[in-house]
Amino acid sequence: MQALLKLSRAIDWLNAQVGKYVIWLIFAATVISALNAIVRKAFNYSSNGFLEVQWYLFAWSFLVAAGYTLLQREHVRIDVLNSRLPKKAQVWIDIIGFAFFLTPLCLMVLYMGVPMVIEKYQSGEMSGNPGGLIRWPVWLALPIGFFLLMLQGWSELIKRIAFLRGVGPDPMGRLSDQSAEEELAEALRREAEVKAATPTAN
């Protein structure tokens, strides 16, 4: 079990690093969008390539960060019933989900997606839009993203099995005791207190 927990920590570290740096893809998409708007207004020029590279970057950030999102337990969950169950029942539901739903889904996407990316790379398929980009780089995000998601699913599976065996911490607790909305409200409250305590210049 310790070897599996070590593997789980390695997967967690990998997806944490991906999540740490994928934000730059969103920043790049934002900059390109702004530059495209400026060039279009100032020089009456635009290109489909500018538009397509934005959704290329968005696709990469969305898909590649899926494993990081699972690590942070921020995927959408409907806990109306699940949250009322005993802790062990919740853990078993997650185990079944990771083993019999998430893993087969990811394997199917990889089975179908990898040959598709290879085919698009070999054919050099281009966008049908004038001035559009080559297609295989954006399709490559699909198998990479689902591979990282599958790895994180296995990591979460290991952590839950370790918890049931009494050799791991509770994997169901939030990384923070507060929801994202509560954390934002708390941050705004602290900022307001700091401003109120800071003397204003006359």
TrEMBL record:
The primary site where this protein sits is membrane
Subcellular localization, as worded in the UniProt entry: Cell inner membrane
Q: Which Pfam families match?
A: DctQ (PF04290)
Checking InterPro entries in the record gives: DctQ (IPR055348), TRAP_DctQ (IPR007387)
Question: Where does the record locate the signal sequence feature?
Answer: none
Q: Which residues form the Tripartite ATP-independent periplasmic transporters DctQ component domain?
A: 31-161
Q: Does the keyword 4Fe-4S apply?
A: no
Residues passing through the membrane, by range: 21-43, 55-71, 91-113, 133-151
Which key words are in the record?
Cell inner membrane, Cell membrane, Membrane, Transmembrane, Transmembrane helix, Transport
**What is the topology of this protein in the membrane according to its UniProt annotation?**
Multi-pass membrane protein
SUBUNIT field: The complex comprises the extracytoplasmic solute receptor protein and the two transmembrane proteins.
Family recorded in the similarity comment: Belongs to the TRAP transporter small permease family.
Summarize the protein's role: Part of the tripartite ATP-independent periplasmic (TRAP) transport system.
Q: What is this protein called?
A: TRAP transporter small permease protein
Source taxonomy: Bacteria, Pseudomonadati, Pseudomonadota, Betaproteobacteria, Burkholderiales
